[in-house]
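Quick entry between incubations.
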Amino acid sequence: MPDPLHARGPLSPSACSYDHGGIRITDMSGRQVAGVALLGGDRAALDATVRQAWGVDLPDTPRIVAGSGLTFAWAGPDQWLALSDAVDDSGPDLEHVLRTTLGPLAAVTDQGDSRVALRISGPGSRDALSRLLPIDLHPRAFSPGNTALTLAGHIGVQVWQVDSCPTYDILVFRSFARSLHHDLCAAARGAARAA
Amino acid sequence: MSPFDAAPTQSPTPGPTPSGSRPRQPTQPFRLAEGGLIDRDTLVRFHFDGRDFTGHPGDTLASALLANGVRLVGRSFKYHRPRGILSAGPEEPNALVELRTGPRREPNTRATTIELFDGLEASSQNRFPSLRHDLLSINGLLSPILTAGFYYKTFMWPAAFWEKLYEPIIRRAAGLGRAADEADPDHYEKATAFCDVLVVGAGPAGLAAALTAGRAGARVILCEDDAQPGGRLLAEQLSLDGRPARDWVRDALAELGAMPEVRVMSRTTVFGTYDGGTYGALEHVTDHLAATAPHLPRQVLWRIVARRCVLAAGAIERPVVFPGNDRPGIMLAGAVRTYINRFGVAPGRKAVVFANNDDAMRTVADLAKAGIAVAAVVDSRAAPSATSRDAARDAGARLIAGGQVTRAIGGRALTAVRIRDAAGREDIVPCDLLAMSGGWNPNVHLTTHHGGRPEYIASLCAFVPSVLPPGMGVAGMAAGVAGTAAALADGSRAGAEAATACGFATSPLSMPSVPAEPSGIEPLWHTLSAFGGAAGKAFVDFQNDVTAKDIGLARQEGFRAVEHLKRYTTLGMATDQGKTANVNALAIMAELTGRTIPETGTTLIRPPVQPIAIGALAGPHRGGHFKPARLTPTHDWATELGATFTAAGLWQRAQWFARPGDAGWQETVNREVTAVRTAVGICDVTTLGKIDIQGPDAAAFLERVYANAWKKLPVGRARYGLMLREDGFVFDDGTTARLGDTQYVMTTTTANAGPVMQHLEFCHQWLWPDYDVRMISVTDQWAQIAVAGPKSRDVLRQIVDTAYDLSNDAFPYMAAAEITICGGQKARLFRLSFSGELAYEIAVPARFGDALVRRLMQSGAPFGITPYGTEALGVLRIEKGHPAGPELNGQTTAHDLGMGRLLSTRKDFVGRAMAQRPALTDPARPTLVGLRPVAPHDVLPAGAHLLPKGSPATAASDQGWVSSAAWSPSVGSWIGLGLLSNGPARHGEIVCAHDPLGGRVVEVEIVPPVFVDPTGERLHA
Amino acid sequence: MRITCPCCGERGLDEFSYRGDATLSRPAGDPPLPGAGAEAWAEYVYLRDNPSGPHRELWYHGAGCRSWLVVTRNTRTHEILDTERAVNVVRATRKDAEA
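Done. Structure below.
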């Protein structure tokens, strides 16, 4: 039996951590992620199945909701990203679990390697992220549980607010991770300077 | 008692000095003993034209130069006239300097907006060899040929002389500063901000608007161009509730600063009004510092999205057009007050005030109060107001009612003015300062960017905003509301309206008591002498050297519409966009043509309101960060191997993997190609677009988007797919594999991954919404590696788990399967070949891509495994005649590429109808062929035109082109693909590949496009 | 310019791409061909009006939810009068046609 293959992220841990001026940036990759999209048009049946399995209502607006063991982030009309709670890829294969549970009600696609999650947190993180994202992150417009698909500079991202610290998670396609990380750190430096 | 700190001991404008020595000036001889918002306890040293001076924090370069008695600051654009300082703000047309040195040198910088910092270096521009002795001022003598339209008239013939002779001379003589020669070392940022109410301008109206909206709880952004908010409140002798106006400003700013939802952005110019409540603003973050600190941007380009906007940008004073009105020492009346009151500087020692309005009479009082003699007050109004009479009397000045300044006297500085009274008597009054005012022009610029034209109000002698962009209100002097009390009230009103519109409950500001401020005015655009030749040039546009006479010339030659006037004379086309010129010009044109000012109209004003550096527009997107880089999962591995990378769209792909001993890239590529043909090679193909398609109607959907048939593709097999645009031309190609009953994975070309996704969504959401199908990109999910060559199966056998049979029968060409490798690792295996060899593509979740490629290298070592890059990939596909980017260029059809037979006749698909147009299937269209030079070592240039042998190299005999070419180590010759008229019928014919860029003509033989293994034996091995 | 995506909310122009007239409908493409409906096809693929005022257009929110939208835009002022998901528009149109 040959040796198993070892995983490697696009950001090396040493290069990726940033902690200055009250802003921390960390690589939060590792959770299993799968795309879920309604098939067959029976939304009520999909809702019921999800509610029964994970105790949560699939959001119809750009929100992220936590169920038991699984979190769903709105990712477009009748589309979601399902994220495992575990921050590593232990536990049963998410794509398999979802396919088994949802059957023909939804298309399920593994996205765990497709996306890298960067977390930015600390008092200055809203200002930092505001420099990078063209959306309004003011608490009156965007609060914990809200998510948005948008552009960070020229890079497509999905962002959501985790808590009012504030903490934000930013999902980006893996191949862009280093570019986004560079831009995020630059924005953090700019925000630290302004503060 | 002298009003000055020290009496000057030498001429205020010193003569030339030997280079290398920097004589010290007496300390700021024109600094007033008191007053001003400057820090008198701190000295700031600066250099102008190589001379050392001092100023104080709070000074601008202009105020510091004036404090040091420097009045000659530059030479004009066309005539090289000596020029001084006209204004105290961003409208300055004359005092333009080169700021800083070396890579930070910035031309055409307005001395009136440069905040003084220690060590500042600036130099005058447009003079040769020195400012005082400018040899090119002879242009002034040549002025008969340099009048309006001279470009069009003078240098007509011969054409060749233009480029070689006229233009270099004109460029040397006319022009402004020099840009830096080196790359800008500073960095720039871009950011977006959101607010309920954007307030533009922090004068009385803007501050009142911000306070009113801020107190209501609205999110407010207050932008102020100047370093110090306050506007005219900082520049006037004015009390609010009996206290100095600056105290009121300080209190207002303190209150705004304490509001969490209010953001005051000073040094920030709002330069444009865009659609949907979007505004462009430029924040000067470090322009006022001696050196940019690390991590500090020089400027930030803000995009401000505001639900409502209050424009409170104030007004700009108008000069009067009279002969010699550009002499250093002639200044706008309001600017004189700014220098006295805000900067504590005496702009002269003996002044004349020339105006048509009451506002300018404040200048008379302020001059007198500062101890500056006022020799005369020239009020153009036949019946001067009580304000004028009182001001003149109090200042001990002679009042010339109904008078005019008919000309300015002096060369490099004003020495006297010639005055004519209402009775026509003339007199010469010695003076070194003329404060002039023709009234005020509201700053309407931001109201016009959507095409709105301002409206002329005769009682104000000014244009005010009329049709406003959606969501914008205007307050204070920008709306023609004159006077501090009125501006405060109007600002509060506008702030309340804006906040109310955003859903906030507002209450009006309690108004401070303000002394009466008379503002009576009667029109005066120019003096009667302005068109006379003898009295000299009367300037309308100082920066572009356009005179009243030029406007007369434009009228005479028929350029009477304002847009024609502008282009014919270049009026308003300099970097100041004619802020002090345009209204005077059109008023003069109105008068010359016997029309009213509203009939004459205004030119369209476009963004930006102030010049914006290209660097600020580029922001951080320059150099290596011009665009984001996408990296493949094997990027680090390839880097370790010393790969050379190339950009494929945003992707960085390994171009080749040079080894020590390779003589050059060609040898490397030959080695890589040969390894694939004789042993095995690996190449990261992750960059190909991958789209997961699921749903009961997935097959039916593929039938629509691909030109060929899909219904019969079994699970576990892949197929080549050709995608057309609706106009019938080829859009993209790739292979799509059926992984399950209702699941497919489509691949696209690297370049078209995004466009294909967009196209599929279009087909699904608009054309065929009833198909039950879903798509999601998995490009980044899977690391995909091509393993190609006769030994590829042997290598894969080392890592694929033994449960999977890789034999040709079990896993034939175009097979696809979900498998496991390396002891249970999930993976996908496709038997696809771009090279024509036995080949596979193996995919693993991207995090394992790095480990997979290293494992393949390790397991493949006994078989001679060799990594190859995009260059070898290109050679391999040309050898097999596979079309790629150069052939799929958006102008080729399936027939052109030899794939006409793929077009299904039994179904509807995107592009079907249009692809069958006779013109698109005409065999005379350039069609895919192989090309081989008659002499194998003749370089075949891609892009060369194909011509019949012996025919002239003309468009008429052009029959096609070389689309791709490479040296083929497998064939031992240069080979190429091309598109040639009637190509497939011409195999064996010799044609010429004509490359006019490289100056080469190569004889080539037309051959079938497959150079290696035409029967496909290797592919199916 | 800012467009309110029915799914994502108001966003800047750079998140969207423009396609064009949303009032055109694709001619029947099923066999028989060739030549059938050539004029209708030429019109669908190539001919476009240049209306002044409100115009129904197809836009794609590619940097957001990937929805195709029917945007009603005043071509003179760039005012966005309405936005709907294209899939809802086409379904409603078909329903109307059937009724």
